[in-house]
Every structure is written in structure tokens, then in C-alpha cells.
């Protein structure tokens, strides 16, 4: 659905207001904005254009207040001008202070159910829905002050309104099948792989027992979204094709609403047999591991400061497996709550891991060793 970054002929309004002919030193600027948080605990971030200062940095919707304009009215107006979205729910003031010299910025928070695609103005070049604890970089210094303050308040066990609804994303139909409304099934990150796990390693001249770090690039995951709709959910890894269908291992399927919300590839799930439901409910086996085809591009680089040896290109989903322990990390597992609270900020909808898949010589996907 949404890409982590959507470019548009628009802009990002800086925290602290639009560029003015007056310098901040000439007069105090009063500004306000809204931190918009969806039910999966991702927030809307805007990337600033070259029209203002801090070009290329990420902020939240907001800007300079008009003369005698109430702060909440200012925040709603600026958010509407910058995103086309009108805040209708409750606003909670979470921070007010001099975020950058000469600018006093008040941040309100509002919680919504679903993400939306903003209509950006000329002050922003892109947007991202990203976790509060992992915003896109570089972050505007004013926003950094707000996020740091939220973390301090949470660690001090001070009250912070997060959301109204904390019901589970899991539900059961009348026949006992488990439905998961939304969950992370993959993640853009760098993971280690042995050379022999990488497709075509011999042709690439890779050493079979040497460890190489590969990046699941966010743009590649975005392109792979549709391939993860309606694929089988298996009790363990095995290539699944029409002429070689592992029916004894199939325990469910992914839904048809896959989307990429940086840094996660997400989808709904349905789990059919009772024994698989019990594994998930007990926590004994609830991590997810994606099986997929990909083309290795052994061009080195860095991702979020972490070096890698190559990039997984042309990802095509084959199946998702329910495993005890996966490769990509514990922030992707079968979802059991719709929302998080500050103390649980590291918890995300799903614990998950991805294991590499190799091509057989006949073109069929094969699980790596």
C-alpha cells in the first residue's frame, strides 16, 4: 500500500513554521503541530523540501501560528494545509518548548485507526509512516526534542495517552480458525548469510562458508508487496508450487491486503488447524519467516549506518513459515495486540524472521541450508 517514502511535487513544513523574511532573532515564533499516530503505532513524518531550512530532514505536520490564533487551531490548520487531512479526534498536548532557537513549538498528539496517504504541499517532498522509536533519518532537531521527551516520560512511568483501543488484532471465527488482522511478515534490514545460502554463489565467486551481509532493501520490499498476497502459511519451510504443494504442512494463508509501511512488509493472516493455533497462542512457535526468490546484487553499501555486502533484488514471495526462531529479529511475530503502551515501545505487531531461499536449477524455489 504505502511506500516508506512517497515522493511528490510537494514539501515538508518545518517544525517551527514556514520560512519567513524575518529571522528568528527578530521576533519569537510561536508554532504548533500534530503527531499523528495510527493504531499500529506508526506516526506520520514529512520530509522537508528546499523551500525552507533543514532541507531533507523529517518532521511532523505543523507551522507558524497566525496572530492570536489558539495553538490547537493552528496545529489543525497547518496539518490540513500540509497533508490535506483534517484532525477530528481528541488532541493531547505532549510537548511545548523552544525546540530550536527563537521558535516555541507546541506538539499535540492524535490517535487514528488507519494510515492515510497525505496530499503534500510544496514544502515537503515525501512522507513516511514509521514507528515512533525508529523514525526516518535525519530527524529535524525540533522533532528529536519531542521524541526524546516522550521517551523520558515513558521511562519515568509518567502518564502518556497512547490510544483509546487496546483490543487484540487476533480473532476467531465460529469454526475456531484464528484470524490476525495485521502483522509484520518481513523487514527492511541487514542480515548475515553464508555464501552457500546465496543463489548462484558459485557464479558470483562467493566462498561457501564465508558470512556475507545482505540488505533487504525497502524499495525492493515495496515492489514485492503483491507477491505476498494469498501465499500459503506453512508449519515449516518448504518450497510451495502448484505441482508440488506441501499440503501436509499448510496451516493457513496470508490475506490480500499486503502493504509496505517502512520498515515492515505487513499482511493479515488466517490460521486453520487447532494444533497450529495452540502453538501461536502458547507462544511456543509464533515467529514468522518468509520464503522467497531473489536476485543477489553483490554491490556493497551501508543501510542506517550498517555495512552490507550485497542487496536482495527482484524479491518474489513464495510462502510464509511459522517457526520457533527466525533470522530478522523479534519485532515480527504473530500479532496479539493492536496497540502498544510506552513501556512496551520495542514491541511491534509481529515477531518475525526471514530465511533466504535459493533457486533450484529447474527454476523452483529452494530453502537455504
Protein traits:
22 strands, mainly beta, Serine Protease, Human Cytomegalovirus Protease, Chain A, globular, disordered N terminus, four-stranded mixed sheet, Nucleoside Triphosphate Pyrophosphohydrolase, 369 residues, 5 helices, disordered C terminus
3D architecture notes:
With 369 residues, this protein is mainly beta. The protein contains 5 helices and 22 strands. Strands 8, 9, 10, 11, 12, 13, 14, 15, 16, 19 and 20 form an 11-stranded mixed sheet that branches. A 4-stranded mixed sheet has the order 4-1-6-5. A 3-stranded antiparallel sheet has the order 3-2-7, with no helix packed on it. The longest helix has 15 residues. The N terminus and C terminus are likely disordered.
In short:
13% of the residues lie in helices and 35% in strands. With 369 residues, the protein is mostly beta strands.
CATH class of the largest domain: Alpha Beta
Most strands sheet: 11 strands, mixed
Q: On the 0-100 scale, what is the average pLDDT?
A: 77
Order of helices and strands: EEEEHEEEHEEEHEHEEEEHEEEEEEE
Amino acid at each position: 500500500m504505502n511506500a516508506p517514502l512517497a515522493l511528490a511535487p510537494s514539501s515538508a513544513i518545518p517544525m517551527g513554521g514556514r520560512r519567513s523574511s524575518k529571522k528568528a532573532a527578530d521576533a519569537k515564533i510561536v508554532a504548533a503541530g500534530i503527531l499523528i499516530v495510527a493504531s499500529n503505532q506508526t506516526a506520520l513524518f514529512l520530509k522537508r523540501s528546499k523551500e525552507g531550512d533543514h532541507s531533507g530532514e523529517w518532521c511532523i505536520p505543523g507551522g507558524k501560528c497566525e496572530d492570536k490564533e489558539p495553538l490547537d487551531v493552528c496545529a489543525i490548520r497547518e496539518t490540513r494545509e500540509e497533508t490535506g487531512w483534517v484532525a477530528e479526534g481528541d488532541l493531547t498536548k505532549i510537548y511545548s518548548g523552544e525546540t530550536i532557537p527563537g521558535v516555541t513549538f507546541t506538539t499535540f498528539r492524535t490517535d487514528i485507526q488507519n494510515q492515510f496517504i497525505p496530499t503534500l504541499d510544496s514544502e515537503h517532498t515525501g512522507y513516511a509512516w514509521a514507528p515512533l522509536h525508529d523514525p526516518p533519518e535525519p530527524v529535524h532537531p525540533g522533532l528529536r526534542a519531542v521524541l526524546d521527551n516522550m521517551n523520558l516520560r515513558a521511562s519515568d512511568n509518567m502518564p502518556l495517552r497512547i490510544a483509546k483501543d487496546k483490543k487484540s488484532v487476533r480473532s476467531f471465527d465460529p469454526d475456531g480458525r484464528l484470524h490476525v488482522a495485521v502483522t509484520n511478515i518481513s523487514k527492511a534490514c541487514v542480515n548475515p548469510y553464508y555464501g552457500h545460502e546465496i543463489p548462484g554463489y558459485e557464479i558470483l565467486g562467493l566462498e561457501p562458508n564465508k558470512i556475507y551481509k545482505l540488505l533487504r532493501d525497502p524499495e525492493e520490499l515495496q515492489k514485492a508487496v503483491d507477491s505476498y498476497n494469498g501465499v500459503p502459511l506453512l508449519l515449516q519451510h518448504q518450497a510451495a508450487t502448484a505441482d508440488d504443494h506441501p499440503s501436509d504442512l499448510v496451516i493457513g494463508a496470508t490475506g490480500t491486503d499486503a502493504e509496505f509501511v517502512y520498515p515492515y512488509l505487513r499482511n493479515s493472516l488466517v490460521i486453520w488447524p487447532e494444533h497450529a493455533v495452540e502453538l501461536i497462542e502458547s507462544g511456543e512457535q509464533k515467529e514468522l519467516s518468509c520464503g522467497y526468490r531473489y536476485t543477489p546484487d553483490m554491490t556493497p553499501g551501508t543501510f542506517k549506518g550498517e555495512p552490507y555486502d550485497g542487496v536482495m533484488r527482484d524479491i518474489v514471495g513464495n510462502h510464509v513459515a511459522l517457526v520457533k526462531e527466525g533470522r530478522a529479529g523479534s519485532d515480527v511475530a504473530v500479532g496479539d495486540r493492536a496497540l502498544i503502551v510506552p513501556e512496551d515501545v520495542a514491541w511491534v505487531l509481529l515477531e518475525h524472521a526471514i530465511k533466504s531461499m535459493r533457486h533450484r536449477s529447474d527454476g523452483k524455489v529452494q530453502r537455504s541450508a
